[in-house]
Amino acid sequence: MIKGKFIDNLPKIYGIYTGGFLAFIILMAIAEQMGMDAKTIGVCFVAFTVGIYALIGWLSRTIQVDAYYVAGRQVPTVFNGMATAADWMSGASFVAMAGGIYFGGYTYMAFLVGWTGGYILVSSLLAPYLRKFGCYTVPDFIGTRYGGSLARFCAVVVLVLASFTYVTAQINATGTIASRALGIPFELGVWVGLISILLCSMLGGMRAVTWTQVAQYIVLIVAYLLPVFWMSNKNGFGFFPHLMLGDEVGRIADLEAQFGLIKNSAADIAAAGVPAGLGYISNPHSEVPAGGMAAWKFISLAICMMVGTASLPHILMRYFTTPSVKSARKSVAWSLFFIFLLYSSAPMLATLSKLQLMDPSLATGIIGRSIADVQALEWVQNWSAAKQVFIADFNGDGVLQLNEWFMRGDVVVLATPEVAGLPYVISGLVAAGGMAAAMSTADGLVLAIANALSHDLYFKIIDPKADVAKRLIVARVLLVIIGAAGAYIASMRITSILGAVAWAFDFAMSGLFFPLVLGVWWKRANRAGAIAGMVLGLAAGTAYLIYVGPKFMAQTPWLGIDHLRFGIIGAPVSLIAMVVVSLMTDAPDKATQAMVDEVRIPSGKTILSNK
Amino acid sequence: MSNKEKHWEKTRGLMWTTLAIWFFFGYVVFMFGESINSASFLGYPLAYYMCAQGSLIAFVVLLFWFANKQEAIDEEFGFAEKEDE
Question: How many domains, in total, are found in chain A?
């Protein structure tokens, strides 16, 4: 099925797939009307979609190195854009982002800007050049450009550290969703999630991951957009929410003024027994906080996320799979377009779900109602039982105030359809979407780590004589080991989803950004400089994380640079170390300089195919 | 100056232009978030709009523009790839 012709038929194949998925949704809706219960619908959604991914993974199995590592370099521009968007949008983007905006308002939206703006750096500084290079992995570029096993090894270390931090959060999210949808304990859900992830990647490597990611993108975007549009229309807020929620944003500001944004003391929260991880609204939705410090915190977070984006290997390696340098560039643009469809909807979803809870004139409004009434609502009972929402009557008046309603951020996405009174089929769809988002990112990450270890560490450093069959077996064994390690750590619930995700960006930018960029843009950069840049950048960033990290030394951050932003310390150290050490040591040899010249022009063969 | 050097000079110029536009929509707008938020666009406060949609749209448009510009530069100096998808 997947040979030559498959590529030409892609629009048709995925068109049929999308039609089939929509038909499945309708079928489920009919089944719901006929009395199928909520739990069965949830199980059907997750089982059906995961089954499809596994089927794609099986059909894409391969025993060729090129197909395994870079999908044969024949993924068309637009499809690679979709695959990258799925690779990029993690469980955190899908499940936690709208919740973050719900609680954090404007301040949190620095993530939106940061997680999109980074693609400008990817396209203008890196992706086309790495594609021309023709490498299989990101450390492959570092190792060849700077030469020597040590530089390659350092790049592998940074890659593993950043990606592994990220992957545990994804497996965690997969487990959370699987456990809810299938009604199994979280610890078991994590392992179910892992098996689903491995089904997609083990047999076909990058080729299988690419085609499942396209399928996962379609599921996740339908699952995200459908409830947003439906809710907006149902409540009469406007048929196209993105263009029409201006009044609603204004209404939230009025209601905030009316109810008052009260901050609870930590002692009150502890005394009331609010479960860990639940938040309440105490930040304005659309108001910009006053002062230069607030602006700096917004901008510094955006910097970390943008520069981190351009250094994350699982994203960069997606552009190794395009047929040409030119299509790599176009593909970055398409990626961001597909990402934009979801990201621009997250604030709309946050607005809709906030207003439907806050506005007393809506049937769904709960703030200002009597607590006994609210506790009688079915969805409140369901989510209270799962310790996802909580009511604490601080002033004892029996009426629910804004600061007395506690909720987990994830609930904004997962429960909003239920709150709005949409049919349960939508909740099932959302669960399938969240599962797709978390799985697709986990796939990309696990593959990035396993490929770096099998190609760079095993093949290039340990056993350069290994034959193809042996290399691919090693790659697959590593895939399983890394996935299992990630699942094991996730099942111990060490860190919250988002803290860990931001760290991955900071690790990547501290260690990899300047060695990658200067490798293309500064001919004088040499091996000693690159090693110094990676080692000192990562060391400085990590040291600072330990210094300010709330779970470590928890010292007062300098200039508001907290543990989410430690890349602000790491990356400049990396730059300075790299430039100083490069200039103190000899310039790279003629052959290396010629190689850099060659990387800079799109035409001709890839660098590695000439060697 | 050789053909390659001229090509690289133009490529570098485009890179800096792209990054300047990126810097404006990514950071400059939000340095003044507090003051521009009293203005409104489509009924949204302006700074809120920019981080919810405005800057994101600007980034998408910028990427397509950049890709086309760079293709034109590559063609001008004869470095465009021959075989195409």
Answer: 1
